[in-house]
Design brief:
351 residues, alpha/beta, eight-stranded mixed β-sheet, 12 strands, disordered N terminus
């Protein structure tokens, strides 16, 4: 059970000392052309990540979180996928305009990704040591013996017991938590500047979830990596993220420093997600759930996409798409890092 109570002592973001962004996503659009029509999966997403900083991207399934990550990594299936507009700047260079060969040199070496289903992401007929060693053989030209030694070091680094004895084992011989550690080791192999972790704790029990998240945070501090953590679980990111971007129907609907978002959400969708988390001080009460279902991306509602499910929706919400605008205090003082795409955010955050 997850509690959302937060400490009053808010630490400075780990990446606060580095002013220049490591990754900058600008007005990114992704669409899929199907027989039924065009599904607009990502609609104008903007965010940045600095070295040593953790950005958590939250939202229900189908909100566009993973598709955005795949577009950043350059692993979208195209067709049917298409990126009609946007920029993905890594250290100031637009990866969407790079030749494939140049982009491959960044993928894995500078930006790595941890996938949510470790069992299906690992090759079942190759040992984990062989799969880990492939990174060193391909990118660094090491021999098989040298690559195996590096693989054992990596397995030790992510705290897999008896790594030397288990390096020749196959994926099915490891537990779910251990397979996820192997995926983390694979992502860390070339010491990338940025890691994208897509639902890294899915299907793991609560204790193992905590272990995996603690390991990621420890390794991030050690290597000063940027981290994008994609999840639908607000409880998972409470203690590891610096800032949060909440997505709904392909758009970012709220941004905030992590502690500020928990304390005062500025969008009805974010408030609904927070109220859906089981709390220790609400024992025996019925668990809140956001009414309705996420929209069909082939037929997104007009105006604010959340309006059919929103308890605060009014006529303007059904006609005008709200922009992601800065959020301020009641006296007009702007709140740093805060934004909300809601016509009535003032009532949500100050109500």
């Amino acid at each position: 059970m997850t509690t959302i109570e937060k400490s009053a002592d808010v630490p400075a973001p780990r990446g606060a000392g580095d002013a220049s962004p490591l990754l900058e996503v600008r007005d990114l659009h992704v669409e899929f052309h199907t027989r039924e029509g065009v599904a607009k999966a990502v609609n104008g997403v903007n965010y940045t990540v600095a070295a040593g900083e953790t950005l958590a991207v939250l939202g229900e399934s189908g909100s566009g979180k993973s598709v955005t990550a795949q577009a950043i990594m350059g692993i979208l299936d195209m067709p049917p996928g298409r990126i009609p507009k946007g920029e993905v700047l890594f250290r100031g260079e637009d990866m969407l305009k790079m030749p494939n060969e140049e982009r491959r040199k960044i993928r894995g070496r500078k930006i790595a990704m941890i996938f949510q289903d470790a069992l299906s992401s690992l090759n079942p007929v190759l040992s984990v040591g062989y799969q880990l060693g492939e990174m060193f053989r391909v990118h660094q030209g090491l021999s098989r013996k040298e690559a195996k030694a590096k693989s054992i070091e990596l397995m030790d680094r992510v705290k897999i017991p008896a790594a030397r004895q288990r390096v020749d084992d196959f994926p099915h011989q490891f537990s779910g938590g251990m397979r996820q550690r192997i995926m983390i080791a694979m992502a860390l192999a070339l010491e990338p500047d940025l890691i994208i972790a897509d639902e890294p704790t899915t299907a793991l029990d609560v204790t193992v979830q905590a272990q995996v998240m603690d390991l990621l945070a420890e390794l991030q501090r050690e290597y000063n990596m940027g981290l994008i953590l994609i999840t639908h679980d607000l409880g998972v990111v409470a203690d590891v993220a610096d800032k949060i971007a909440v997505m709904y129907a392909g758009r970012i609907v709220e941004t905030a420093p992590v502690h500020e978002l928990y304390k005062r959400p500025a969008h009805p969708y974010t408030r609904g997600l927070l109220e859906s988390i089981p709390r220790l001080d609400q024992k025996g009460q019925e668990l809140y759930a956001i009414k309705g279902l996420p929209p069909n991306l082939l037929h997104v509602p007009s105006g604010c996409a959340f309006n059919p499910r929103c308890p605060k929706a009014q006529d303007i919400c059904r006609t005008d798409i709200p922009a992601l605008l800065p959020v301020s205090e009641q006296d007009g003082a702007e709140l740093p890092g805060r934004g909300s795409a809601c016509h009535f955010w003032k009532e949500t955050i100050h109500g």
